[in-house]
Amino acid sequence: MKFFPASRHLGFLVAALAAGLGLLAATQHPAWSLLAVLGGVLCGVGLYDLLQTRRAVLRNYPVVGHFRYLFEGIRPEIRQYFIESDSDELPFSRRQRAIVYQRAKSDLDKRPFGTLENVYRSDYEWINHSLQPVYIPDHNFRVIVGEDTAQPYSASVFNISAMSFGAMSANAIRALNAGARQGGFYHDTGEGGISPYHREHGGDLVWEVGTGYFGCRDAKGRFSEERFAENAREPQVKMIELKLSQGAKPGQGGLLPGAKVTGEIASTRGIPEGEDCHSPAVHSAFSTPIELLQFVARLRELSGGKPTGFKLAVGHPWEWFAIARAMQETGIVPDFIVVDGGEGGTGAAPLEFADHVGVPMREGLMLVHNTLVGLELRDRVRVAAAGKIISAFDLAHTLSIGADWCNAARGFMFALGCIQSRNCHNGRCPTGVATQDQGRQRGLVPEDKATRVCNFQQNTLKALRDLLMAAGVEHPALLGPEHVIRRVSQTQVRSLGQLYPSLQPGQLLQPAGGDGYGHMVFDLFWEHARADSFAAPARVRS
């Protein structure tokens, strides 16, 4: 039976079998009654596990799932190994997951005996505190996006990054959106379109439009203005995000096999049920930087004047410079840009892409930020960042080097109960987060996990507020690279402002001069970028 697969309920089935055999054997000899009693107790535990709503692992793996929590609960040696230690085999440290779990459950997130970090390692980073801390009454930091549009949006500085229905289960989408509504932050739909589960709880949505134009495509897969306008004008949709590339697998498209294209997914994406669904590597609606910006302007118009921007994982710098050149020449600017780091996650990235393709988030963010500063456009374009952001220090670090707000995916997945089993791609997610299997989805109870999603976001922002107060900074917008310090050797430390060169406002509007721009990437590629083409400059091709 699909609902009770033996592989997931083995402990419960063995307990029931033991109880049955014990009762049968007890008629022959009283000693067998002990087996019947033990089996009955375990059956009771299994029944409780199936009916409780707080732990997805126990709902999906009654009885045997307790072993996981037993090992986690042993302190300090076993807990530190299973929860807090780092591992090169996992894309996210157990210590970081522990932070999420504690904040999602609103547990006390204090740690005795000081830092676990090696403060003398060459990449250790910290924020200096002030001898005159300030008081910040509210942790609900906001950023106004699209001030000049008809429908500007006040975004939280910490939101849910793009995760599509199809990759995520219906219950996971429900919980994320309900949590976003409770906490007053936004939920990015991912490129899979706006599903009924995104709409169910009414949380703020940022609609991501990818190369497949899911939810806004015609029968041939081309962009449809009519379908786009129909969805984009829904009050729940607050902003439009055009996806150029994603950090998890930049430069690649995607394929959803026909066997996974259920009726719900087909209806959400606007594709035939049961047929292979291709997501191309490039957009068909534009092919040059100028056409890209014209398309962004058209999406803004069709949406009724909602803030519209694009997301990219930075790759060849001359391609980003070409977009910046197009902004300069046409006067068309996006309301926001989301920089997705090459360290971004997904359940289906080839190993080489996951490990070695795309500019990491910090370097990509600083390149985008500096370019906009150099063109005197930074005040008009908001910049967000995503890529392994989970703690308040991650937020502060990212905001200090140029971001206006941050998005996270994995952190919110952990808040849903993800245990990083690495079965996202095969449908066998043990916690019901990344699967379309109805039996496994049942383990995730949206009402419970929505509260945890909200708790994680709110408690992380409270921790950010505490960091800012200690540093004497009254708002995240006042953070700069001079606030974050990095050890570069056993005997030297530098602020990020000293380590990374920055452009002056308007510097790219002037000739480079004999000394160049003071930044190697700009010196090599800026003067050769073209607004009418993404092609590499001749000097690069030669």
Q: In CATH, what is the homologous superfamily of the largest domain?
A: Aldolase class I
Shape summary: globular
Query: β content, as a range?
Result: 5-15%
Percent range for helical residues? 25-40%
Distance between the termini: 62 Å
Blueprint of the fold:
Layout (H helix, E strand, L loop, with lengths): L9 H17 L6 H19 L4 H5 L5 H8 L3 H8 L9 H11 L20 E3 L14 E4 L7 E4 L1 E3 L9 H14 L3 E2 L7 H4 L5 E5 L15 H8 L4 E7 L10 E3 L6 H7 L7 E3 L9 H14 L5 E5 L4 H14 L5 E5 L10 H6 L4 H14 L7 E5 L5 H9 L4 E4 L1 H7 L21 H4 L4 H26 L12 E4 L5 E3 H4 L20 H6 L12 H4 L1
Helix pairs in contact: 1-2, 5-6, 6-16, 6-18, 7-18, 11-12, 12-14, 15-18, 16-18
Please tell me about this protein's structure.
With 542 residues, the protein is an alpha/beta fold. It has two domains: 10-85, no CATH class; 142-487, TIM Barrel, CATH 3.20.20.70. The protein has 21 helices and 15 strands. It has helices at 10-26, 33-51, 56-60, 66-73, 77-84, 94-104, 170-183, 196-199, 225-232, 263-269, 289-302, 317-330, 351-356, 361-374, 392-400, 410-416, 438-441, 446-471, 496-499, 520-525, 538-541; strands at 125-127, 142-145, 153-156, 158-160, 187-188, 205-209, 237-243, 254-256, 277-279, 308-312, 336-340, 382-386, 405-408, 484-487, 493-495. It has an eight-stranded parallel sheet with strand order 4-13-12-11-10-7-6-5. It has a three-stranded antiparallel sheet with strand order 1-14-15. Mean pLDDT is 85; it is low at 1-6 and 74-90.
